[in-house]
Write a structure and sequence with these properties.
This protein has about 575 residues and is an alpha/beta fold. It has 23 helices and 16 strands. It has helices at about 40-60, 70-85, 90-100, 100-120, 125, 130-145, 170-175, 195-200, 210-215, 235-255, 280-290, 315-325, 365-370, 370-385, 400-420, 440, 445, 460-465, 485-500, 515-520, 535-545, 545-560, 565-570; strands at about 5, 10, 15-20, 160-165, 180-185, 205, 220-225, 230-235, 275-280, 295-300, 330-335, 390-395, 430-435, 455, 505, 525-530. The strands form 2 sheets. The chain has an 8-stranded mixed β-sheet with strand order 1-8-7-3-4-5-6-2. Strand 12 (about 390-395), helix 15 (about 400-420) and strand 13 (about 430-435) form a beta-alpha-beta unit. Helix 1 (about 40-60) packs across helix 6 (about 130-145) and helix 12 (about 315-325) runs parallel beside helix 14. It is globular. The two termini are about 35 Å apart. About 45% of the residues are buried.
């Protein structure tokens, strides 16, 4: 009997294959140790950590030459985490102090770190808890003698759809070489490194399918629809034929997309649209350019502050920013620190209880203004890096004109200091605001008098507007990018920017989702920033669209006062 299950589609496409279930969650025992064997237990943990490192290094050598830069970078991230004090010395200290087995000590530390990441408001940073889980699980499996072997299928074997509680980027690298047809996991989210890598490799994937390992049987045929977030097990002949044809159509479309790489993103009625990429690694810049991105619309800087005891100094930050700015052939927008009191994983020195609601607490620009030296150090490094390319600075979580002007003043002072020191700084470094708080969208006309550009962060804007957490299984069904309130805030921001002559971009997930491209064009958006893998598909839609007609439809949509009428009008943008 056919079984229809749903989750979150994180990597588009149709995958058809036979179910291959991987082992589920680990059962980690905890027991006390006599003092006489504690040193031996520490040695056992260190041996397991060394073996995990050897495995990751071996996997790194197996990355295909044409794989995206993220593949090697994610393995490098895991290698760094293995050596991080929080997963090495801290575990050893627990073994020695508590006289407990290595597995239990590692599990305690893993859970403590995951809890810290779980408190983070930024969905991207919160998803980093998955990395902690993945690295810890690799060591735990070695300690428990339950190592996961995912490379046993030969290339000649029938394609498999892997079903697991979770899949690590390392597993994906190995499985991709075996022609895996898709992934279905019980946990995970769209911003996890696993999801990002699946998208880069073009492997259909669905996450958050609770009970998938229980519902699906080994070797039965399953269809993965990464576009819709659905999977169909044991399909009948009619359904199988339908999805096979749909897969063939998608494959033909993807092949045709590469011919658009060097073609400008200009609509049928001559409107030029700018397509940029969101990146977090310097290697991503070249990959984005190869796929036709004109530059970088969002470069995150939080990685410099994570998993360390001290704060990064000005010179360290300058070297990192200068390298990425110089590598981008076009403009690059760098977002200043978007951490908070809840996100001081290792490098923060703040004391006190974790805020009850970190989403509404001291974070991003609020933290930077409360601790101006922290902000000033980053700003000085950014201004120095501006001499190496076409860079602009974006301030996150702005909610008022006063916040923006206060931050702007610190930037002006930093520029004056650098000039007095004889440091090189670009003649012009635009400073803009990230519009992700409803109050900022409502005040966009006022903020536009001071900000030199806007970038709409739809991930947080939607969550704040609808008062929901999209990674909370209990309420994520309410996460609706098409909610009338969200669309009106987007339109309000774009209009305010246009009136003031300010460029308005969008760097949230909506910008890279083909389902929303025509609607956003209708709302007046002319600058999209997205994951590099989405650039060509969005460009195709733009080239095939008539922006003038879409804008007329958008006017009717925003004037509609009936929910049914609005949904019908939204359907016209399909």
């Amino acid at each position: 009997m056919s079984v229809w299950i749903s989750g979150i589609g994180v990597s588009r496409g149709i995958g058809i294959g036979r179910v291959m279930r991987l082992h589920g969650e680990l059962d980690v025992p905890e027991y006390e140790l006599p003092a006489t064997v504690v040193d031996d237990e520490v040695a056992r943990f260190e041996d397991a950590r060394a073996r995990a490192r050897e495995q990751l290094l071996q996997i790194r050598t197996q990355i295909p030459g044409g794989a995206p830069g993220e593949a090697a970078a994610f393995i490098d991230t895991y290698l760094l985490m293995l050596d991080d004090r929080s997963l090495s010395e801290a575990v050893v200290d627990t073994i020695r102090e508590k006289h407990i087995n290595a597995e239990a000590a590692l599990k305690r530390q893993r859970d403590a770190l995951a809890a810290v990441f779980e408190q983070m408001d930024d969905p991207y940073l919160r998803a980093r808890k998955d990395d902690v889980q993945h690295v810890s699980a690799r060591v735990l499996r070695i300690l428990l003698k339950q190592e996961r072997h995912v490379s046993g299928r030969s290339e000649a074997a029938e394609p498999a759809v892997v079903v697991a509680d979770d899949i690590t980027p390392a597993d994906i690298i190995l499985l991709s070489q075996q022609g895996v047809a898709g992934f279905i996991t019980e946990y995970g989210g769209p911003l996890s490194h696993t999801a990002i890598l699946a998208r880069s490799l073009g492997i259909p994937a669905i996450v958050g399918v609770h009970g998938a390992r229980r519902l699906l049987r080994d070797s039965e045929i399953v269809i993965v629809d990464g576009d819709q977030g659905h999977a169909l097990a044991d399909p009948d002949a009619k359904a199988l034929d339908f999805f096979q044809k749909k897969r063939e159509q998608q494959q033909a479309q993807r092949a045709a997309l590469h011919r658009l790489r060097d073609r400008p993103a200009v609509s049928r009625d001559g409107v030029k649209i700018h397509l940029l990429a969101n990146i977090e690694l310097i290697e991503d810049a070249a990959h984005a350019a190869e796929l036709g991105a004109e530059g970088v619309g969002l470069y995150r800087t939080e990685f410099l502050y994570m998993n360390r005891k001290d704060l990064p100094g000005e010179e360290e930050q300058y070297q990192a920013y200068a390298k990425v700015v110089a590598s981008v052939k076009g403009p690059i927008t760098i977002r200043t620190l978007d951490l908070g009191a809840d996100k001081q994983v290792d490098s923060g020195s703040r004391q006190g209880p974790t805020p009850n609601n970190p989403a509404l607490g001291l974070r991003a620009i609020r933290l930077c203004l409360k601790e101006p030296e922290l902000f000033r150090t980053q700003v000085r490094a950014l201004l120095r890096a501006s001499a190496h390319g076409n860079m602009q600075i974006m301030l996150p979580m702005i909610s008022s004109v006063a916040e923006f002007r206060q931050a702007q003043q610190i930037i002006v002072q930093a520029r004056e200091q650098l000039a007095a020191e004889g440091q090189q700084v670009a003649a012009r470094v635009p400073v803009g605001a990230m519009i992700e708080v409803p109050a900022a969208a409502l005040s966009a006309t006022l903020i536009a008098q001071h900000a030199e550009f806007f970038s709409i962060g739809t991930n947080d804007l939607i969550q704040y507007t609808l008062a929901i957490d999209r990674v909370d299984d209990e309420v994520n069904y309410l996460y609706d990018p098409l909610h009338p309130g969200v669309l009106r805030l987007i339109r309000m921001t774009i209009e305010a920017g246009n009136r003031a002559g300010r460029a308005v971009a969008m760097c949230g997930e909506m910008a890279g989702d083909p389902r929303f491209t025509r609607l956003l064009l209708g709302l007046g958006l002319t600058e999209f920033s997205m994951h590099p893998a989405s650039v060509l598909e969005i460009k195709r839609i733009i080239i095939e669209s008539n922006v003038g007609e879409l804008r007329e439809k958008a006017v009717r949509l925003l004037e509609a006062d009936d929910a049914t009428a609005m949904m019908e009008l939204i359907g016209e943008f399909g």
